[in-house]
Amino acid sequence: MFVRRSAAVLAATAVIGTAFTPAALADASPSASPSPSPSPKLPSGLYGSTDPTYDGVWRQSLALLAQHTAGVRPAAKAVDWLTGQQCANGGFAAYRADPATKCDARTQTDTNSTGAALQALTALDTDDTEAGAAAVTAAVKWLKSVQNKDGGWGYLPGGASDTNSTSVVIGALEAADTDTEDLRSKDDRTPYDALLALALPCGKGSGNDGGAFAFQPDKKGVLAANADATAAGVLGTLGEGLVTDPEDDERSPASSGAAGCEGGDSPTPEQAAANGAAYLVGAVAGSGHLESALAGAEKQPDYGNTADTVVALAAAGRPADAGKPLAWLEKNSGSWAAESGPAAYAQLIFAAHATGTDPRDFGGADLVKQLGATGPAAEPAAEDGKDGKDAQNEASDEDGGVSVWWIVGVGLVGGIGVGFLLSSRTKKQRQP
Questions:
Q1: Where is the composition biased (Basic and acidic residues) (predicted)?
Q2: Residue among 295, 289, 303 at smallest CA distance from 343
């Protein structure tokens, strides 16, 4: 869902709009090195075969969360790799090649990596163990500590709040049972105050963009509609994370599905979500998909953000409107996902799940199997009266008594840092 990407990141992932790809990327020089190639030195627990410098924690978090959503128990070493990326302060960075080296002032922990990791770890119930609970608590504490005065979050601590980062953090904190509606900044502002300030008002001058969300204001303080940010903003104002369950009876009043733009320049969070959903319906009404907002790629379909739009529309109680972009994805997203890797498969699984669609028969493709093929083999499915570990040990005994089950203890390792997008970037931000 994030439009800001450096040329290096685009080359590395070959993705346009990969779901909730980190929001704020640094400026990249035109002479930046071309696409990083697959490395034989990648950790065995990591999903994907491309250079993880910019997206290691992000794609791992989405892969684990998508497998859990599809009823698959991820490999223990894949979960351990993710927890091992956490810094002692609780934050995650895009990727740390040497997790044994303590995080320091040069380690760029960020809200997007931390938020995605927190959503994955809470879904997997890692907090059921003492070490896992400590990891979750530390991540929550770190995210709270970097909340901006306006109530929101930027990609990097201290950076200007943006819709995408704020929404990712809201979803993560909600997953960790944090009351985001009463989470107030030093200026007594909530995360929802920050999001509402980034929503284009209804009424005169808004045209067809009223109700959309901007990523950030431009240098003059003007808000520009951004479909990527709007999909994120809908989920954020509803307090939803990356995964939205279908037919949720406790869903926000945004599920009324009203057309148009409500609330004028002072909408409630529910109205803002409904307004954003209405904008997205219009954005995909013609072709069934969004188009890339990236320079030089404007005429290309934006597969990832189209998947995010499906999730957002389902979360806003508009599953019928999600049908057209979903059908387009089922027909057209296969090559994109294969080229893009685990995060892309995860995005499609989230879209399928949100609409009650079988991810194992998504336009004839088994997304769960395809995702699984990008990383370590999942744990065996549980049998009646047995968990996956029992089943695996039993199978090993039949092969000669040598168990292949092993667990690298999941825990918060002091000084271990996580990288979420960029390990070598400037802090200068560009407007989309």
A1: 383-392
A2: 303
List pLDDT tens digits, range 370-400: 999 999 999 887 554 444 444 434 433 333 3
* Of the candidates 37, 22, 15, 172, the residue with the CA atom closest to the CA atom of residue 95: 22
**Lowest pLDDT segment from 19-23, 118-122, 246-250, 337-341:** 19-23
| Nearest CA-CA partner of 291 in 373, 220, 338, 227 | 227
- Kindly report which listed range (115-129, 133-147, 201-215, 308-322) carries the lowest average pLDDT score: 201-215
b/e for 152-178, b at 16 or more Cβ within 10 A?
Answer: bbbbbbebbbbbbbbbbbbbbbbbbeb
Q: Is the domain defined by 7-398 classed in CATH 3.90.76.10? A: no
* Region of poorest pLDDT, from 11-20, 126-135, 174-183: 11-20
Residue 338's identity, in one-letter code, is A
CA distance readout (Å), 148 to 26, 111, 231, 360: 20, 12, 22, 41
CB atoms near residue 266 (< 10 Å): 10
Evaluate if residue 32 carries a pLDDT over 90. no
**Which residues, 6 or more positions from 374, have their beta carbon under 8 angstroms from its beta carbon?**
47, 48, 49, 63, 341, 342, 345
C-alpha 176/C-alpha 136 separation (Å) is: 8
Handedness of CA 81, 83, 86, 88 (dihedral sign): negative
- Helices 319-332 and 342-354, axial angle in degrees (round to 10): 140
Determine the Cα–Cα distance for residues 166 and 230; give it in Å rounded to an integer. Answer: 12
